[in-house]
Amino acid sequence: MNTKSIRFRIIILFSSILIIAISVIFASFYIFTDKIIYQEVDKNLSLHTDNLDQFNNVSGMVSILLDKNGNVLKSSIDLNSSSILFNNLFKIAQKNKASTFINQSMGNTPMRFLVKPTWVDNNLTEVLLVAHPIEAIQKTLNSLLSTLFVIFVIFIAPVILGAFLFTQKIINPISSIIKNMDDITTENLDKRLENPKSGDEIEKLSLTFNNLLDRLHQSFLRERRFIEDIAHELKTPIATLKGGIELTLSKDRSKTEYKRTLKETLIDTDRISKLVSNLLDLAWVGMSRNTHNNKQFNLSELVNDLAQIALKLGLQKNIEVNIDIKPNIKIYGDEGKITRALLNIIDNAIKYTKNSGLVSILLEKTSTEAIINIKDNGMGISKVDLEHIFERFYRGSKTAKTVGSGLGLAIGYGIIKAHNGSIKISSKVGIGTLVEIDLPISF
Amino acid sequence: MRVLIIEDEVRLNNIIKKGFVEDGFAVDQAYDGEEGQYLAENEQYDLVVLDLMLPKIDGITVCKNLRKKKSKTPIIILTAKSTVEDKIIGLDSGADDYITKPFSFVEFRSRVHALIRRSHQDPSPILEVDGLVLNPLSHVVTRDKNQIKLTPKEFAILELLMRNKEEVTTRTKIIEHVWDYNFEGMSNIVDVLIVTLRKKIGNGYKNKLIKTIHGVGYTI
After folding, report:
1. pLDDT at A61 over 60
2. B101 and B13 inside one domain
3. How big is the A-B interface in CB pairs under 8 Å?
4. CATH code of the domain containing B94
């Protein structure tokens, strides 16, 4: 048995407590009995001593009178050579002024002696020894002791068994949870623990585990989906790349044809490397405490730069760009990442606004936050799409598959969140979209 | 042979087209499900290459719709979806083959030829009539082991005639299967090509093989 297991520890603790408790009860019982019996004997002895003549005939009772030197003056029995015994008792009498009770054997008979010295002006004049045989009492006490011991030993087995059963009852549900949890792997993450419906901590534990499994399962599915999406995103450019190369190699071609193929492959490799750098950005977002590039920077200047880019992008589609930027708003963070997030959003605004539309970029601050509003009067986003807009690889139902990687907003969202900011998108189909980004400002 | 490619990725679509054109196929391209379905329903194709994730109507629906309208044209699905479930769904919707991206172009070509062969119920990949042998994959035509050089269009007409040997192939059918949607030439181009084709394969032989059925078409 594992000595560190809770089961073992509970059994040991439980049994020890019970065994100690029983021992204490039994010991007290024995000591108490012993005391009461001797008290009774001592009471009799004192009584007899006070009325020595009257009780002289009590069977087994011995009374001896010693003089101040320890010699026997008077004795109720024949004394042989047991003067050593009296020496011992006489020494006790010399030390104590009051009467003393003591067990002492006379020959083979255990006796209870009362040693009563008589002192006159601090001089010991004589010592009276009165004794009762206590053989019967000692035998009774001894048999009581052995009975108690036997009872005690008999008790131990059921106590340990009880402790074992008790532990079993507590531990069993936990053991079954352990067994069930053991069976759960990444292959069957949808498996759940049975609810014991016991209303106790075990039920709570099961429910907590199940909730944890739910969350794990969800994130596992999300990750798997993400990896499938990545594979899918990579497959099409790779298919184009591979197909183009294989086709070109299938027979001899002119120099210009080879050149054209190489140019085509460059387009695909660009697309693949862009996807990979997007994935790296996502990975950055995933690492929550990545702050080594953080420093204070001027958000106003950054947004202004981006607005200039928006102006240029808008020029091709004749889109008017309204800019309203309050100066000298500073925030703390990774300037490159923030640029990336904002550029994604501004780019989307231009992309989904029709020719001669209007995009406005606004930056202001409250006492604690910098607020960036990017508004367009483009095609808008449907309610269904809006719910999923920040999901990785989510593409709106109306956007053509070839536009973008489907990662831009997910990355933007992650970056803003990593800077303790918030991003909100409200939109109406056919009317336009408003993206509001709040970032905490530094002082 | 005339092929329709339904694939929204423009560049991949062009590459597949280029490969087919070099095989002497007439190729039409569609970039979404709706356009693809319209073309497949209204034109005569020997094969349709179909992507699954398409704008407007997805590939599976296109495939099911075509089969619902009793179209017998072989359909080959070309997609990035590569799980067993996806393949089952694809094939069960009525497709004849399923290829996942990224694919080997050579394998793709062989599968395309195999499907066309099967749809014409030709057991052998090589077509043969009276010592005239045509290999669709290697593009080689021989008569009694002498190689005959043909232009892609001549080759395509000869292949069509040989696949339908002992049957009359009409001029319209030749135009439908050898030229793509954008063909606006006159139908006598067929007659002109037949004349040169007959000359090339019949040079020095008594049996010219290609016979004219007046007012209807040609047979071999």
Report:
1. yes
2. yes
3. 66
4. 3.40.50.2300
Domain A291-440: homologous superfamily in CATH: Histidine kinase-like ATPase, C-terminal domain (3.30.565.10)
Q: What is chain A's alpha carbon radius of gyration, rounded to the nearest angstrom?
A: 50
Express each pLDDT in A99-148 by its tens digit: 888 888 877 788 888 888 888 877 888 888 888 888 888 898 899 999 99
Q: A279 vs chain B: nearest CA distance in angstroms?
A: 19
SS3 state of residue A297: strand
Distances from the Cα of A166 to the Cαs of A10, A20, A28, A162, A413, in angstroms?
9, 18, 28, 6, 54
Instruction: List every span in chain A annotated with CATH 1.10.287.130.
Output: 201-285
**3-state secondary structure at position A172:** helix
Chain B residue whose CA is closest to A268: B11
Distance CA B5, CA B131 (A): 35
Contact B103 A242 (CB under 8 A): yes
Please give the average per-residue pLDDT across A26-44, as a whole number: 91
Closest CA in chain A for residue B54: A401
For residues B10 and B89, membership in a common domain is answered with yes
Assess whether B156 and B49 both reside in one domain. Answer: no
Compare A151 and A59 and report the one with higher pLDDT.
A151
Nearest-angstrom CA–CA distance, B95 and A17: 77
pLDDT of residue A432: 86
**Contact across the interface for B105 and A247, Cβ inside 8 Å:** yes
CATH code of the region A9-139? 3.30.450.20
Please tell me which of the candidates A236, A243, A251 has its beta carbon nearest to residue B105.
Answer: A243
Categorise residue A29: left if φ over 0, alpha if ψ from -120 to 50, beta otherwise: alpha
Question: pLDDT value at position A83?
Answer: 55
Measured CB to CB, residues of chain B less than 8 Å from chain A are 8-12, 15-16, 18-19, 22, 53-55, 80-82, 100-106, 108
Instruction: Quote the minimal CA–CA distance from A396 to chain B in Å.
Output: 11
Instruction: Read off the pLDDT band of A401 (50, 70, 90).
Output: very low
Asked if B80 lies within 8 A of A267 by C-beta distance, the reply is no
Cβ contact A269:A241 at 8 Å: yes
Question: Which stretches of chain B drop beneath a pLDDT of 50?
Answer: none
Cβ-Cβ contacts under 8 Å for A131 (sequence gap 6 or more): A45, A61, A62, A63, A64, A104, A106, A111, A112, A113, A114
Task: Summarize the confidence of residues A257-279 as an average pLDDT.
Answer: 89
Chain A nearest-CA residue for B108: A243
Query: Residue A402 is nearest to which of B9, B100, B108, comparing CB atoms?
Result: B9
B71 and B141, same domain (yes or no): no
A65 pLDDT band (50/70/90 cuts)? confident
- Determine, for residues B101 and A267 on separate chains, whether the beta-carbon distance falls below 8 Å: no
* B63 lies in the same domain as B137: no
What proportion of chain A, given as a percentage, has pLDDT over 90? Answer: 14
Per-residue pLDDT for A82 more than 60?
A: no
Domain boundary among B96, B119, B142: B119
Structural domain tally of chain B? 2
Q: CATH class for domain A201-285?
A: mainly alpha
Query: What pLDDT is stored for residue A146 in this prediction?
Result: 93
Read off the pLDDT of residues A224-255 as tens digits, 9 standing for 90 and up.
878 877 887 788 889 989 999 988 988 889 99
Say if residues A126 and A68 touch (Cβ distance below 8 Å). Answer: yes
**Which residue in B has a C-alpha nearest to residue A243's C-alpha?**
B105
Which residue segment(s) compose the domain that B42 sits in? 2-119
Tell me which of B81, B101, B119 is where a domain ends: B119
pLDDT for residue A85: 66
Query: Within this chain, do residues B82 and B145 fall inside the same structural domain, yes or no?
Result: no
Residue A1 has pLDDT above 70, yes or no: no
CB A363 within 8 A of CB A327: no
> How near does any CA of chain B get to the CA of A254, in Å?
15
B93 and B112 inside one domain: yes
Break chain B down into helix, strand, coil percent, rounded to 5: 40, 20, 40
% of chain A beyond a pLDDT of 70: 92
Residues of chain A that touch chain B, judged by Cβ-Cβ distance less than 8 Å: 231-232, 235-236, 238-244, 246-247, 250-251, 264, 267-268, 400-402
